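User: Is it possible to get a 3D structure for a protein together with its bound compound? The compound here is fe (ii) ion. I've pasted both below.
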Amino acid sequence: MAILKERVFSNNEIEAWNTVLATHEKTRKKQVVDIFHSGLTTLNIQAVIIPHLQEINDTLKKKSGFKGVYVKGLEDGKSFYSMLAKRLFPIGNFIRNKSDLSYTPEPDMIHDLYGHIPFLIDIEYAEFCQKFGKTACMFINDDKKFHQFERFFWFTIEFGLIKTVDGPRAFGAGIASSIGECEFSLSSKPEVIDFDIDKIINQEFRIDQMQKRLFILESKAQLYECIPELVDKVNISEK
Ligand SMILES: [Fe+2]
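Assistant: Yes, that's possible. Here is the predicted structure of the complex:
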C-alpha cells in the first residue's frame, strides 16, 4: 500500500464527478439503504464539488474512527483487508473518463469516496468492516479460504441488497455508485437469493458485467452478527 497525497483534479475529472453525482442525486434516495444517505449528508458529499479528503476524514474520525487514504487504484485483497483491520479505507485518487461514465478500469473516487465512504459513518457498519478485515487476515495464507472472504465481501458490502419496510434497497457500495447497476439490481432481471453464507462463499463473481445473481439481507443486524458463523463455514468448507 502506497499512500498518495491529494491531487488537483482535471476539468475532465471534475465534470465526470459533477455529472455522475447529479444523476445519482435524483434517484438514489429511493434505491439505496438509509445509512448511505445519512453518510452523504453528514459528510456533505455533493455533485457540485469534489470534497477534500481531509475534511471528510475530520468527520469520519469523530464518528467511527475510520480514515480514507488515497491510493493509486485497486488494492490487492491482502492489502485491502489489512487496511480495513486498521480502520483505513483506500480511495483511488482519480476519476473515470467523462467519455464513458459507466466504465472505470479500477475503483475511482466515484466508487470509493461516493460509494463506500458514506457507509463508514455508521458505527455498527464500521465495526463490522474492521472486524471483517481482521478476520479475513487470519486466512491470508490460505488462498481458497481467503477467496471465500472476498466472495462474501463482494456479495454484501459491494453488491448486497437489503429488505426494508419500503421494499428492497441497494446495500452495496458497488451498486450505489454505479451507472446502470442500481436500476438493474432492483429490477426483475437478476436472480435475488435470500442471504445465505454457504451459498455466498461458494458463489463465484464476475467483475466485468452486471451481477446476475444477488443476495438480499433481512436486516443490517443479520450481516453485522454473522462473522462467527462465517468463520465456522469457511473452516469446514473444502472448496
Ligand atoms: Fe469497492
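Residues 107, 111, 116, 158, 173-174 surround fe (ii) ion (CB under 6 Å). Residues 11-232 form a domain with the Phenylalanine Hydroxylase fold (CATH 1.10.800.10).
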